[in-house]
Each structure stands twice: as C-alpha cells, then as structure tokens.
Amino acid sequence: MPTVELANYFSTDRLLPSLNWVSDVAVNAKNAERVQAIQNQLEAVVNENAISAPLVLTFAVVGKPRFERASHQRINLFYSPTYTCVVGNPLGLVATCKLLGQRSFLFSSRLSVKQANQRSEFRQRIAMEHVEVRVIFDDENGFDEHQVVELFKQNRIFDAPINLPHISEREVLLSEDQFPLKCQVEQLIQQTSLDSFGGVSFDSRHVKKSDTHITTQYILFKLLVGAVAGIGTQEYSKMSKDLTLPNGEQLSSVLSDYCVNRVAIFLRAWLEPLKSTFVDDRSGYHLSPQVWQAIGLTFHHLDQGDVSNDELVSAGNALGKLDYSKTAKHWNDCPVMDLDAKGRIYKNAASSTRLFRAGLADYFVQVVGSGGLR
Q1: If both were cysteines, with which of 32, 188, 272, 360 could 294 make a disulfide (CB 3.0 to 4.6 Å apart)?
Q2: How far apart are CA 89 and CA 57, in angstroms?
C-alpha cells in the first residue's frame, strides 16, 4: 500500500501500553543512526531512482478480527486500527513517519513550517511509494496484548541484521567501488610493485595463510593514513569517509603524489629483503596487519625530520632485514612482545591493538636508530 495510507489502517504513532517502555529505552544513538540510514535509502529511491528492496512492515492485530468474503478470490479483514501494533521492522516505520512528517512512537517526527514547505514535493512523492505490509492475526481465539508483546520481542531475533563488522569498510573493499583515498592507495600499490611480491587482496580485510597475497587494500589504507596523519587518525579512520586533519583540511585533498611517492619508497625498501620470505613463510609477523600499520607509523616519525629519499631506503632496508618469524630472538627487545606460556614463540603483550602498533613502531624506530616514536 502507499506509505501515506499506513496511518489509516494501523496504529503508527503509539505502541501498546505494555510496550510504552520501548519509547524510552530505544532512544539512543544507535537506533537514531539506523533510522537515519533507512531514511537515506528511502530518499535515494525517490530522488535518485535507486534500486532497493521494498520496505517491509509487520503489524499484529489485538483481539479477534472479522472475516467477510468479498469474492471468490478476495476476503476482507475487519479490525480496529487502534488495536494494532507494529511487531516487525519498527525502525522502518519510524523512518517512514519522519519522512512524512507524521507522529511516531519514537523520536520526534514533526516538521517545522519551513521544513514542511521545503520538502513539500518530496513528501508528496514519498507518500505514494509503496510499502509491503504483513498482518499477523489469530482468527480463532484472537491475540491478547501479552502475545503481541511476545511477537514484538521476537522481532529482535527474526529481524536481527546480520553482523558485518566494519561494513562501511567492506562496502568499499571491492576494486570497482569508490572511497576517498582510492587513488592514493592505487598509486601506492603501483609504485611499490606489490604484485611482484604476492599482490593485494581486495575482498577481505586481512590476509590468510592459504592466500598468496601479502596484504589487503584495507591494510594499505590504514598504513597510508598512519604514515601521513599518525596513530590517532589511523585508529579511528574509516575507508568510506574522508579524514579531517587538525588544520581542518581533508586528507584526500592534501595527500599529494609526492607524499605517496615517499611512502612508497620506504615501503618498497622494506619489502625487498622480505621477497622470498613472503613465499616461504606464511605464518610470520611480516603478514601481520599490525606490523604493516606500524611500518606506516614508523614512516610518520621519520618524515617529521628532514629525511632524504636515500635515508628512507636505508631505513626501510634495515627493517626489511629483521627476522619476522614468531620465534626470532630480537623480539625480546620489543616492549610489546613477550614469550608465550611455553616459552617458544613471541606474542602481543600489549593491552590493545593500538598500543601494540605504537610499541612496534617505537621498536622499529629504535632499529633504524632514530629514537622513540613521537
């Protein structure tokens, strides 16, 4: 049915009395973000003719509805809209109400006069967009309020979204997709000739032992951000978003070819001594995403001074000649490495991945003889 008709057939502005607590508990940033995401998708369908699956809402009828056969193929269902409650995709209903400027049970949906005038045409168009509606009812005994509450709670199970960590990054992992630093990452890949060392994976965040790749597009993005902006920005950066530097400028606009070329010089110098190791050993720290990101942080430290390209090559080679196997004795000098319980292999001894990267970078800086990480 058209979205504008929802309020005529179902209760869209309130939940059942037994669910009033939801209106308080559900007011949080995560739900606000989800509602906004649904709104954005619905707006894209209307404004940009974007491809989208239909919005699906499920309502339950409290009490026993009445049937009336209208024809051989159609049966009319009679019930009071007041005695209905959304039990499936409640946030989708809230998003729809907000776009229409109608009252909903969660968040404020009322538009100011100015907003109403500015979005008048859009609201007319979204009002005619169709939504798929499912109605749950018990024609024999009728649902009581307690049963409808249970159906609402089941929504958290049956309508639960699939857990895809860093989905915003995964959406841009494929080579044909776009992200703000795509050109710079591609430039880094080309200038370091990464294909000659084993190549880059574009469909996963980390390399696996069974892979032939030595790194991923995601790790290179993190390395490049750390090399240019340091550990703080590296920690919270997302591929899908451009990065704002402390001076207010966007990283994508200030990351010059010269800067990427400098990072590439250092990275390739690190890779060269490890070329055969990438083939022969798929279990060492040379494949660790934390080590790669620490290499970027090491460049960030070195680049704070007046370091020539030749000095970058020398520093990269020094780090590339380290033994990255997990049994290498030199890890004993690294403050964030410690032997495991059996005293056989060195492992991460830091309390977080950020501290692990920082500690590795500190150690790498010491290896090249430049003091501690700033």
Answers
A1: 360
A2: 6
For residues 87 and 135, what is the distance between their CA atoms, to the nearest angstrom?
10
Q: How is 289-307 classified by DSSP, letter by letter?
A: HHHHHHHHHHHHHHTTS--
Give residues with Cβ within 8 angstroms of 193, minimum separation 6: 268
CA distance 94 to 111: 14
Q: Kindly report the number of other CB atoms within 10 A of residue 258's CB atom.
A: 7
Alpha-carbon span 364 to 295, nearest angstrom:
8
How many angstroms separate the first and last alpha carbons of the chain?
Answer: 61
CB 194 within 8 A of CB 215: yes
Instruction: Read off the tokens for 320.
Output: 């590339």
Work out the average pLDDT over 125-144: 92
What's the CA gap between 59 and 321, in Å, rounded?
65
pLDDT at 27: 82
Q: Which residue type occupies 363?
A: Y
DSSP string, 113-175: HHHHHHTHHHHHHHHTSB-EEEEE--SSS-B-HHHHHHHHHHHHHHTPPP--TTHHHHTT-ST
Q: pLDDT digit string (tens) for 173-218?
A: 444 357 899 999 999 999 999 999 999 998 788 888 888 999 999 9
- CA angle 9–13–19, rounded 5-degree value: 105
SS (H, E, C) 64-119: CCEEEECCCCCEEEECCHHHEEEEECHHHHHHHHHHHCCCCCCCCCCCCHHHHHHC
